[in-house]
């Protein structure tokens, strides 16, 4: 029986890469070691180092780019229906490997096993959903005012670079890879250097399901080394980034220097608005899962809880009581609801933000006062009250299990506070007043908005941000538009074509 976390992880990875005992990058169908410096991984539940692997580095990036170009040719040579069948088979294989994938994710990323099972199931849904789209990506015939036929073709870019964060590694991998390959592209996926394992396993499973080698490559390494080398690769035609706003800016700048487009899925500081007429029991459960699920390490976390003043004390006490009862603990225990913060840097940030809130006059209704845990990167689910929207704790993304409760008096004030943020990723309203619910949904600037619910996300629905939360959409049919480019084709159909120098008559200049 494997004993150390290191041995347990290698044992969990082994079925995906028989005969290999190391972690590296997946390039052209092979698990290869990079040439860069060693990257050390730390177990967030104990704070102890458990694994190291080499950064992919420039040479492996170039090799992956060549493999992706070849892979994309093979993929494009299949019929659209054949590609759909492969995508569907990937979904089936992911379902068949649900438990091993979930365990690998839980162990390597420090996420509660119950969350990981749900996320792996969602990954299967992503491939199944896009399987049905591969043969429905057609162009249009446009009625132009001349004797020509004009039609459009929706074509893949070729090779896409996808860069993902550490908070939901397997989920963001499937979320971006499924639409990208459904649209006929090959991908270079650069997962967070902290959490590459589940992406490596998914790439290997996709090939077992029939995906040609080289279509799905995983480059394990740092952003400033491997990530930047990949952006600079001439084969890369578009970059899709999920991560923090600061890194998004660097990636957009590097892509702009090459004149290639980006999709940016960035952070949030989403407002969860509770009116006095809401079903407070349901709103309370919603408010807790909005912020404490995944220990708040979720881009759409309901981190600003806006509560009508008439119910403020009562409702905040309810949320605090719920927070007290949540079970925090080791990720692999089935009862754990809130796991650790994934890494030391993020842990330091969460504790520092709580202390900043206390310095500015906020009070802890429940949870942490910003002091570190005895072992591991744990933060108790924390509710801060008497918070104003101009405090740092209400403006900066904490990305941890910390919710700030802000009182408001009127609907107008609630909307103004919700919109007084640089971000615009998500938001919610809880009320029985139907007209108010839809009014508020239309007035809050956010890419996703929920009414009497929170955090429902599905691959069929478009997802993305307003303002500093990014641009472009990464799911639903919108993603297929992002991951294809449109070609306009003109055909002469007239028996007596007008011969003209310059613009042909009838079409006009
Ligand atoms: P991060 O920005 O630090 O890193 C994200 C990815 O970018 C990693 O793979 C990293 O290696 C890479 N990277 C870092 N520097 C780079 C560089 N100079 N060039 C190229 N690549 C680089 O983000 P994180 O800390 O891993 O994740 C947390 C952030 O992600 C939060 O802000 C969260 O809100 C956001 N997030 C957004 C969404 C969304 O869909 N909107 C989803 C999940 C997470």
Could you explain how this protein is built, in words?
By secondary structure, the chain is of the alpha/beta class. The longest helix is centred in the first third of the chain and has 21 residues, at 57-77. The protein has a seven-stranded mixed β-sheet with strand order 14-15-16-13-12-17-18, with helices on both faces. Strands 9-8-7-10-11-19 form a six-stranded mixed β-sheet, sandwiched between helices. The N and C termini lie far apart (76 Å). It has two domains: 24-266 and 473-486, Aldehyde Dehydrogenase, Chain A, domain 1, CATH 3.40.605.10; 271-451, Aldehyde Dehydrogenase, Chain A, domain 2 (3-Layer(aba) Sandwich), CATH 3.40.309. It is globular and about 80 Å long. The protein has 16 helices and 20 strands. The model has no long low-confidence stretch (mean pLDDT 96). The site of nicotinamide-adenine-dinucleotide (NAD) has 30 residues, from helix 8 and helix 9.
């Amino acid at each position: 029986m494997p004993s150390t976390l290191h041995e347990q992880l290698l044992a969990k990875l082994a079925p995906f890469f028989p005969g290999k005992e190391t972690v590296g990058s997946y390039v052209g169908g092979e698990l290869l070691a990079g040439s860069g410096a060693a990257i050390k991984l730390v177990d967030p539940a104990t704070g102890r180092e458990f694994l190291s692997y080499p950064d992919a580095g420039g040479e492996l990036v170039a090799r992956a780019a060549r493999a992706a170009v070849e892979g994309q040719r093979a993929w494009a040579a299949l019929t659209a229906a054949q590609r759909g069948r492969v995508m569907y088979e990937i979904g089936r294989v992911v379902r068949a490997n649900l438990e091993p994938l979930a365990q690998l994710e839980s162990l390597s990323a420090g996420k509660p096993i119950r969350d990981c099972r749900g996320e792996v199931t969602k990954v299967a849904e992503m491939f199944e959903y896009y399987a049905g789209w591969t043969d429905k990506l057609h162009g249009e015939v446009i009625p132009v005012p001349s004797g020509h036929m004009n039609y459009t073709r929706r074509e893949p870019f070729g090779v896409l670079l996808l860069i993902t964060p550490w908070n939901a590694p397997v989920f963001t991998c499937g979320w971006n890879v499924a639409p990208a390959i459904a649209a006929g592209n090959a991908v270079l996926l650069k997962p967070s250097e902290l959490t590459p394992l589940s992406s490596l396993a998914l790439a290997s499973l996709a090939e077992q399901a029939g995906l040609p080698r080289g279509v799905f490559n995983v480059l394990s390494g740092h952003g400033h080394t491997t990530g930047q080398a990949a952006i600079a690769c001439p084969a890369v035609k578009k970059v899709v980034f999920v991560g923090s706003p600061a890194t998004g800016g660097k990636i957009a700048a590097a892509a702009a220097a090459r004149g290639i487009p980006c999709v940016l899925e960035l952070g949030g500081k989403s407002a969860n608005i509770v009116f006095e007429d809401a079903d407070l029991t349901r709103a309370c459960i919603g408010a807790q899962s909005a912020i404490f699920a995944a220990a708040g390490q979720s881009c759409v976390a309901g981190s600003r809880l806006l509560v009508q003043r008439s119910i403020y004390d009562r409702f905040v006490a309810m949320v605090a009581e719920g927070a007290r009862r949540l079970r925090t603990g080791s990720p692999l225990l089935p009862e754990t609801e809130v796991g650790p913060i994934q890494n030391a840097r993020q842990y330091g940030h969460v504790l520092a933000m709580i202390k900043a809130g206390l310095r500015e006059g906020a009070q802890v209704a429940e949870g942490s006062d910003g002091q570190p845990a005895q072992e591991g990167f744990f933060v108790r689910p924390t509710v801060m009250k008497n918070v104003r929207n101009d405090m740092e704790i209400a403006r900066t993304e904490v990305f941890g299990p910390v919710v700030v409760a802000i009182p408001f008096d009127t609907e107008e004030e609630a909307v103004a506070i919700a919109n007084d943020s640089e971000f615009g990723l998500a938001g919610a309203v809880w009320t029985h007043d139907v007209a108010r619910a839809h009014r508020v949904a239309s007035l809050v600037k956010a890419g996703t908005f929920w009414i009497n619910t929170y955090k429902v996300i599905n691959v069929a629905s478009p997802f993305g941000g307003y303002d500093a939360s990014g641009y472009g959409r990464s799911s639903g049919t919108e993603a297929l538009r992002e991951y294809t480019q449109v070609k306009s084709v003109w055909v002469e159909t007239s028996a007596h074509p007008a011969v003209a120098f310059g613009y042909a008559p009838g079409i006009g200049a």
